[in-house]
Amino acid sequence: MTAAATAVRLSDVSKAFGTGGSSLLALDQVSLDVAPGEFVCLLGASGCGKSTLLNLVADLDRPSAGTIDKNGARVALMFQEPALFPWLTVTGNLELALKMRGVPREDRRGRAAELLDSVHLGGFAKKRPHQLSGGMRQRVALARALALTIEENKNEDSVPGGTVLLMDEPFGALDAMTRDLLHDEIERIWRTRGLTVLFVTHNVREAVRLGDRVVLLSSRPGRVVEEFPVPMERPRRIDAADVATLAATITDRLREEVGRHGA
Ligand SMILES: Nc1ncnc2c1ncn2[C@@H]1O[C@H](COP(=O)(O)OP(=O)(O)OP(=O)(O)O)[C@@H](O)[C@H]1O
């Protein structure tokens, strides 16, 4: 893959926390190429450095060694907790994100409405977060993440890396039915907006349901131990037999990896 064909390229990225004898190596020489428009799911044992990796890609932290090339991509991050401002309405939360991106005041209301429509929450503009279900709050969080990737006065084509959405267990706290619905939603938005997605999950079936590719990290320190392309046609069902079969293969490999490191 050439540099131009990647949205995100991690080359030998290591991350240590602390110094001297008390330092902890969280990531060890991770190399990973993500193509523009690709949906990549990251799996690994608890504490193997998945969130650390997303934080590095989001520039919330810096690698101790190695490089991360984003090819000019705009990056937004979404967590398990929607972290909306409770005193603002749904529209207010989105307008604030748009303001942070430099969208002029007169355009914000309309842009917020478009974003809300895109996550099927058009009728909930005036609600406050506590008046929404967990799944709805995550949809608002998704709309806000999309708002944070808007760049005013920039031609979309002028950003070679496009938009990279980093999702850290975004549906981990939701019930299975709501999660299923949100899988359909994120797949639709990924497709229609041509997003590149890096998605962390503990749920192997969820990774196979959503990913073009599932990347397995070793137990701490995290290294890429194996990659599984997901060949099944979309949309996939999380309870489909071929999803379950590939998920079982990946789970066996994950168990082996966890066992090897005694985690
Ligand atoms: N700011 C920090 N300072 C010190 N240690 C940290 C820091 N952030 C993460 N770590 C450590 O780095 C390791 C990797 O953490 P990280 O949260 O990235 O793992 P994870 O794979 O996302 O875990 P989980 O699956 O449980 O969410 C852990 O041992 C964690 O305690």
TrEMBL record:
GO terms for molecular function: ATP binding; ATP hydrolysis activity. InterPro entries: AAA+_ATPase, ABC_transporter-like_ATP-bd, ABC_transporter-like_CS, ABC_transporter_ATP-bind, P-loop_NTPase. Residues 8-244 form the ABC transporter domain. It comes from the Bacteria. Keywords: ATP-binding, Nucleotide-binding, Transport. This is ATP-binding cassette domain-containing protein. It comes from Actinomadura litoris.
